[in-house]
């Protein structure tokens, strides 16, 4: 019914606007029939789905600016989209938006090894950058689990993290400059290359993680890093979640900063072992830790010895060091495809993303257990333990009436537990439409007001990615209703 | 003459406003006679000096909010000030401001070792934090050279760096949360503790380094770090600046990330050896490098060996490793008091602060030499070479007619050279009033406009720290004239 209404609306305006898009990007680069646009009805947060007005594929900054200017002048809501792997609905159309897909702007424009930076277009796939520069001994650090398909433009919008952000930081720590098309069509450049403290306000930080609500990023200068001389990876199995949690704290207390420090609980292990990359983890353990150390070769072995000792002190059941890159690679493939692997043990799942002070890990994990019992839904935990960045995966079956809403509510309860523990409602997946109401757990009305006023500076007509990131009167109600 | 005019203006309004301040903070906490306020006429950038309207010393957030609200309601320009060690005039009154001095809000409110954070008031001195927590094995990383006196509130305003920001990042990388009094007197909290990607816009990043133009920071949650298990420090003397520069690049290329990588040229060495902390550096060398590596003990020795090898490959004249903490401490005292030491070889000096891509170090240093010859002023270079963060110190004598302006122009020419080399006009000292015109070297009118619109969101009446950070028509002219 809703779909039909939308469709009719598109048809009424079609000739006029769609033909304008044809002129800007060429006829082949515009989708406008609902059937062609099905995969653009949502991103990786699939609970909300709405049809866009059109999907257009610009090939350069000039075309993006022309599209944005056209939308601004004609009062058409619009949003930018990368690979659509976002997990909070940031690229989901809510208002019949024109989607500006940046997947055809996928060039690696330049690499400057001496000053350790590269310039990419927003549609360039995260992992392609590391693949392109690894022969010279360099890599790009932010490594979201979707890195083999997600785009760096999308990473900038969401300030994406990844398993290795414990040591290396999230996307914002690796962005040196941006070219941005502002919501009025102006093109601006922000950030200087390699400047520790750029003069003026930190617009680079402001834009990074703004979830596509302040401008459309058309070019990105990123920091590249020299490959660590050596890596070692430890896998540790525990019979008690508390022992694993304590090992996490003890490793950090020992002064070691692992490149990654990941945890999975029993339900998660069941999922990954049923998924596409099983590695033979035992099913009867309570938790596992995956710990990686990297750096110059000297000293790595000593750190590994210390990590093994910490595990033993915390009653580890079994612990081993990866024998070679192949084994390390298998362990990571098993971990990084973990979210998707939940599909093997549940028809549907909802990924949550909260953050807590590391010291409160055992207590919050126990609260998540209680939430699981209360809502009668299994919850798997795969997460960046070193950062205190939890990812409860709420398993549900959308065919059971009301179960989708139950999963959403259980997710919200998990976020409440995180925020009550002094943490926050998102570690790396963003707010999007998913967590708009939960923003009230952590922000007062005045604080939300201060933020929305910034949006108005950049985006006075509020045409760009409407209804995302901040609760607005009316909008929240509408979003909540749409969940049914 | 100017001073007298200002004095008269103060007197006319004195009773009314000054008495209001008495009521808010108590009579003893208000200065309002010009003679009492002399040391508040400027900060560490002494070229501009103007008398404030009053200096008030609040003791808590409530008093700050009441003062700010009073100023807002009575249309009184105001600004916040820490220790006044800033080098770009950010705390200098230009418009007969009410100065809110935060030096009496100097408490360390709490330390949470387990989650590695501390909460301080803005007037807390940078080095006091490390001193307070070092017995437990922790420290606070940002270490501007003025750290023994500068306040963490001022560090937040300027996004202060320091010798160790090469490895550890600048202030913004160590701030987890802020309590801020907005220019209308509202109190807001921003940032979550330890969250890699805080939801909403990055206001924490926006406020940090905003040079006191967006709000008055009244409480700061900072990250604290575990002391590195071991440190080693290398001192290397070179006969050619180019050899030293190449050693810098080669160390980074070797995959080593030193905690600090500092350089001084011959003129700078002359200054520090005449200053309060001479250590016997030879006077006949062209440049020295001070290189520190830290981390877990295993591996440090190998890194030092590699650094020594790099120095030898680059024709080092003499190279040595600090024998103990005492020797290391002497080398650092000599370096950190370097700016002030210029007073020993010149009646006046102007510190500049530009950034360039590391690879262009030799070329830009040569340009600075040319600027020195052209303006007939000696220029010493003491700088964070690893970051490409230059600090040309322009030596002059303000008693010679026109020489102050010549020094300012030479400084501006140095910044132009940096920006033309693909760098920027400030690495860590901020823009303040000093570099307001130079903002045009790197920002277009549209970009400056986007930034000033953000200021208007926070600071609609433009009462807070007027005339700083961004060029405004009229203002620039006025500032330039005042330099005479």
Secondary structure blueprint with pairings:
The structure is a homodimer of 484-residue chains.
Chain A: H1 2-25, E1 30-31, E2 54-56, H2 61-73, E3 78-81, E4 98-101, E5 108-112, E6 117-120, H3 126-133, E7 138-139, H4 152-158, H5 165-168, E8 175-181, E9 187-190, H6 203-207, E10 216-223, E11 225-226, E12 230-238, H7 241-253, E13 260-265, H8 266-274, E14 287-295, H9 300-313, E15 316-321, H10 325-336, H11 338-341, E16 348-351, E17 354-355, H12 361-375, E18 379-384, E19 389-390, E20 392-396, H13 403-420, H14 439-442, H15 445-458, H16 475-482
Parallel strand pairs in A: 2-4, 3-4
Antiparallel strand pairs in A: 1-2, 5-6, 6-10, 7-11, 8-9, 8-10, 12-14, 12-15, 13-14, 13-18, 16-20, 17-19, 18-20
Helix pairs in contact in A: 1-2, 7-9, 12-13
What is the arithmetic mean of pLDDT of chain A? 89
Q: What oligomeric state is this? A: homodimer
Number of helices of chain A: 16
User: Largest interface here, residues on each chain?
Assistant: A-B, 85 and 85 residues
Distance between the termini of chain A: 14 Å
Global geometry of chain A: globular
Structural class of chain A: alpha+beta
Largest sheet of chain A: 7 strands, antiparallel
**How many domains make up the 3D coordinates of chain A?**
4
Structure write-up:
2 copies of one chain form a homodimer. The first copy, chain A, has 484 residues and is of the alpha+beta class. Chain A contains 16 helices and 20 strands. In chain A, strands 15-12-14-13-18-20-16 form a 7-stranded antiparallel beta sheet, with helices on both faces. In chain A, strand 5 and strand 6 form a beta hairpin. The radius of gyration of chain A is 23 Å and the shape is globular. Chains A and B meet through strand 9, helix 6, helix 9 and helix 15 of A and strand 9, helix 6, helix 9 and helix 15 of B.
